[in-house]
Amino acid sequence: MIRTLPQPRSYSTSFTCYIILFYVFLFAPLVITCILAFNDSNFPSLPWKGFSLDWFLADGPDRIGLFHDRSNLTSIWVSAKTAFWVSILSVTVGTMGAFLFEQEEFRGKQALYFLALTPLVIPGVILGISLLLTANSLGIFFEDRFGLDIELLRPSFWLVVLGQFSFIATFVLLVVSARLKKFDASLEEAALNLGATRRQVIRHITLPFLRPALVGSGAVAFLMSFENFNTTLFLVGSETTLPINLYLQVRDGSTPIINAVSFLLIVSTSTLAVINLIVSKRGEGK
Amino acid sequence: MKTHFRLGLFIFLTPVLLWLLLLIVVPHLELLMMSLQGKDDMGKAVWTFANYRHFFVEKIYWYTFVRTALYAITVTVLTFCVTFPVAFYITKVVSPKFSGFLTILLLMPFWVSELVRVYGWMILLRESGVINHLLVSSGLMDSPVEMLYNDISMLMGLVYTSMLFMVVPLISALEGMDDSLIEAAHDLGASPLTIFFRIIIPYAAPGITSGSIVVFMLALGNYLTPKLMGGKNSLWFTEQIYNEFIASFNWNQGAAFGFLLLALSSVIIWFGLKLSRQELGRALS
After folding, report:
1. Which ipTM was obtained for this model?
2. Which of A105, A176, A184, B17 gives a 20 to 30 Å CA spacing to B108?
3. For residue B195, what is the domain's CATH number?
4. Which positions, given as ranges, span the membrane (chain A) (predicted)?
5. CATH classification of A70-285 is 1.10.3720.10, yes or no?
């Protein structure tokens, strides 16, 4: 059964085979996508026609590479901006939530905590449409009543940010709460006894302790936002994010330029993942 | 001291309340209200159950709804079956030297956007895809077959995109398990099957519940994978919602569908929690 017990050879061999097959299954689509980004062909398929960087660098007229493709470059920039604001907002509010639920006592705390967890179990599509409906109703209300036309209430950049923030904040809340639970309260008490104010305690003692969780959850929040599709789909305005833009391209037929974008995404997210892992490992070691 | 304490409460409470009220509570009330409204013959907005009646009368909506629910459950079970051996191997079988490396390798693909992963499967499976090319050029097959756009490819895609959310809770549940429990059972003569069902499964139950809840919810609310990998005739319920919102522009009907999907997912998650006697907070963290 397990490594300390004697096991028949057939058991361990077949188990290892299964694991190898599983990892092949896991990586096959990504590896193929990356390889075909460099195929000198007009379609993302075999046969292999030779190595080429055309899908990154070509500047027309037959092929336009990623670095000259205005629409994809713009959507990458929009996604990065969105993810930046979403992670700032989520880390701020999520951390405040963690302090609220871990360190404060008030009536209705359990109910509010339950409410704060629900965004993670509400399907993203539902979050998207309910926010769209509300923004739209509010927009109509302001226009009828005050003759105001508020940009924020139409499908737009900031509506996407709000929609993604609404559930990513819960994720940050959970990560920071878990770290805050491990915090030794006597450190805070000592500082308070020595005359520090609560604000000083949080700034000089609690926040430095939380830093690994803040950085880690901020990075994951960035990624979650960068890749979000379901919620964004209903809230997106004229500024399309990368996943939406890619989706439209995949739906309407594919060119290897999608592979080129995918290759960049795979390489950069893996790098970010490894960095995040090293940082959080070091944080736990403290 | 007392006033200080309350000030802190106020500072922390305000943003959290704003977030939950404005972005979660109010929008979902609005969703419910919109789903209960319609237009009468004069084009005026009125309260009505017509949107829900429409759902129950039109067979296609019903059918899609039930189909989506059953398929999401199937995906959850399949994901468990595929990932449990992997979690067990990493935590209990392989030498501890490799288990860290295998775990990192396991998490890697899930950092990449779901769209990229689905796209990868599309260029592998489609008629002009890589697998067909390899099979035909190696002489195993005479002509390429369409392997994409059917229910099996869709299920596989859904399992693939949600595996992470099952395997991580399973690994952390099994990691906490003391090996001596299994050794003791083995020494006392229990068969591997008995050990599996009487010791390992009960021990991993909390991990199984949290994994299943998240996988189920993600499969139910998925739009991309069914849309890109499923067949033309196999609608997913989220596609119905999208059609009502974007194509037909019938937001009241779409809101009703959305609310039904929300109700379905809440009921099944609640049921799963009751069945395994867990709380939402524990299951998520």
Report:
1. 0.85
2. A176
3. 1.10.3720.10
4. 12-38, 82-101, 113-135, 155-176, 208-226, 257-279
5. yes
